[in-house]
Amino acid sequence: MFDIDRWKEIINALKKNRLRSFLTAFGVFWGIFMLIIMAGAGRGFENGMIEGAGQIAENSFFMWTNRTSEPYKGLRRGRRWNFDNEDVKFIRTHIPEADIVSPRIFAGGGGGNNTIRDDRAASFYIKGDYPEWNDIDPAEVVTGRWLNEVDILQRRKVCVVGEQVIKELFDPEEEPVGEYLKVNGVYYQVVGVINPISNMNMNGRAEESIFIPFSTMQVAYNYGNEVHVLGVTAKPGYSAAMVEEKVIAALKQRHKVAPTDVQAVAHINLEKQFKQFSTLFDGIRILTWIVGLGTLLAGVIGVSNIMLVIVRERTQEIGVMRAIGATPRKVIGQIMLESVFLTAIAGYIGMVLGILILEGLNYVLEMAKANGSSEIFISNPEVNLTVAIACLAVLVISGAIAGYIPAKRAVRIKPIDALRAE
């Protein structure tokens, strides 16, 4: 049954030690507040990295060539070399662990205007791709379609463009599919518009890129059989790192590059990158809980200390209570309620304020994304509500324990001794 007089007594007891109570409550508040904020920020960083990766194949790797750093079989050090079309065929037929193999060539971006439509001109990244590239680094087709095998076989002069290309070369009400763009002196018909899902941005941002059939680009711009980048995925059950090592060794042998030349082939292994990120996130979570729980523990210890002080100052009052018939259970309950009240109120305020700040931060981030900002690496900072409530419950239980210790000491004092205390 709710006893309003008892709660008045609790509040009055805390008022008598207003400064100590406030500082102790602030310690509890700050502990759970920082735990909520750090857990939410860590989760937001993890969400941002996962969102940035989009649906990119985690078992993939990408390779490109550099100058050789070692002489080999009569060939000089510092030699330039490139992958070629035969390398693609070789990997597909001789490396059974490789699943998708897709080449890319590229040009443009960062220089003068290379793309013209009517009286508008701009500079974009030009990329020659196979249809399979979209299986490695998927993009959302906003309108039209992606490149297909017929485009490759017939060397069609078609292109797929990013949304930024549309914004710069077309009016808002215009339909881009079916229109023509003049890219480096050659006309291409727009067959699709894409929006990138990941933030990988290899060889330039996808929204600022024009994608042309690989075979068409090789012929149109006299690239011969050059390949600038190879994207490869491992078949299920095989490690991308193992497939990568095998592919690099085979290509070095084909092009007479020293097996020990680590500079000649540059590569990025997304499987390794994702494992590193996973380890990083685990470390952030562990650090968050260590720091947060340590701060909470400090707050609980503070509650125990303030209750010891309160009990000491109320020794005579406790003696009177015992003298007029108060049972040890009632005295202990009174002191424990004061401790629980202090921790529950401070902990609840800290939890609610922390969640509100995370919600406010999430709103600001969503607004920034809606306004076109792409340089945000935090997404949906959140904390599991069940975990937050569980932390608050543990905090309240700890507060009860923190109050029980001084209460137990108080009831051990004989009433006559308590009444004589100053």
Would you mind describing this structure in some detail?
The chain is an alpha+beta fold. The protein folds into two domains: 4-54 and 275-420, no CATH class; 98-234, no CATH class. It has 13 helices and 14 strands. It has helices at 4-16, 18-53, 85-94, 133-136, 149-154, 163-169, 214-220, 240-254, 270-313, 315-323, 328-370, 385-411, 415-420, and strands at residues 60-65, 83-84, 98-107, 115-117, 120-122, 125-129, 139-144, 158-162, 180-183, 186-196, 209-213, 226-227, 229-234, 265-269. The strands form two sheets. Strands 1, 3, 4, 5, 6, 7, 8, 9, 10, 11, 13 and 14 form a twelve-stranded mixed β-sheet that branches. α2 (18-53) packs antiparallel against α9, α2 (18-53) runs parallel beside α11 and α9 packs parallel to α12 (385-411). It is elongated.
Count of extended strands: 14
Rg calculated over all Cα atoms? 34 Å
Shape: elongated
Report, as a whole number of angstroms, the end-to-end distance.
Answer: 35 Å
Keywords:
single chain; 422 residues; twelve-stranded mixed sheet; alpha+beta; two-stranded antiparallel sheet; 2 domains
